[in-house]
Amino acid sequence: MEQAWLWFGVAGLIVVLELASGTFYLLMVALGVAAGGIAALLRADWPLQWVSAAIVAGVAVWLLRRSRFGQRRIKVDVSADPNTILDIGQRLHVQAWRPDGQARAMYRGAEWDVELLPGEAPDAGWFVIREIRGSRLYVAHAPT
Predict the structure, then answer these.
(1) Which of 14, 33, 106, 137 is the most exposed place for a label (fewest CB within 10 A)?
(2) Where exactly are the transmembrane stretches of this chain (predicted)?
(3) By C-alpha distance, which of 47, 10, 46, 45 is closest to 31?
(4) Which pLDDT belongs to residue 1?
(5) Contact criterion met (CB below 8 Å) for 18 and 30
(6) pLDDT of 98-110, one tens digit each?
(7) What is the DSSP string of 60-122?
(8) What pLDDT shows up at residue 80?
(9) Exposure string (b/e) for 13-24, b if CB count within 10 Å is 16 or more?
(10) For residue 52, what pLDDT is reported?
(11) Which contiguous run of DSSP H or E holds residue 138?
């Protein structure tokens, strides 16, 4: 019985640590430790308590990892995300390009530095903004 209280006390301590850290993984480990306490209540031997705690914690962590809470988020490049920067996808006209593939163009009432994306031909005309890095617009030819 004393071993069970030890297990549950450690599980409670882990839950408190989980609340401080904000991760669910410690909560899964606390579930495993609680399983060790339940095994102790059922009068299992000390090694069996450890094995049951390890198995429950391992399975819980594995299930958490496979759930939507455990998936890594796909990081989106903010400089090319139209949901973040509303200028992405807007059109602008470039009069002429310098030999290095850069130009200055009027956009939203101001003059901006414009750079061609790789593979684009430096022809004058309409372009679509694909990325914005700092004050530089990266453009590609606008579809006709």
Answers:
(1) 106
(2) 7-40, 46-64
(3) 10
(4) 65
(5) yes
(6) 988 899 999 989 9
(7) HHHHHHHSTTTSPPPPP-GGG-TTT-TTTT-EEEE----TTSEEEEEETTEEEEEEEPTT---
(8) 79
(9) ebbeebeeeeeb
(10) 94
(11) strand 136-141
Query: Which residue from 136, 11, 18, 20 is spatially nearest to 80, judged by alpha carbons?
Result: 136
Confidence at residue 113, expressed as pLDDT on a 0 to 100 scale? 94
d(CA 113, CA 116) in angstroms, rounded, equals 10
Q: List all residues 6 or more positions away from 86 whose beta carbon is below 8 Å from its beta carbon.
A: none
End-to-end CA distance of the chain: 78
pLDDT at site 140: 92
CA distance 96 to 103: 7
For residue 135, report the phi and psi dihedrals to the nearest 5 degrees: -105, 20
Rounded to two decimals, the pTM is: 0.51
Q: Which segments in the chain show pLDDT lower than 70?
A: 1, 74
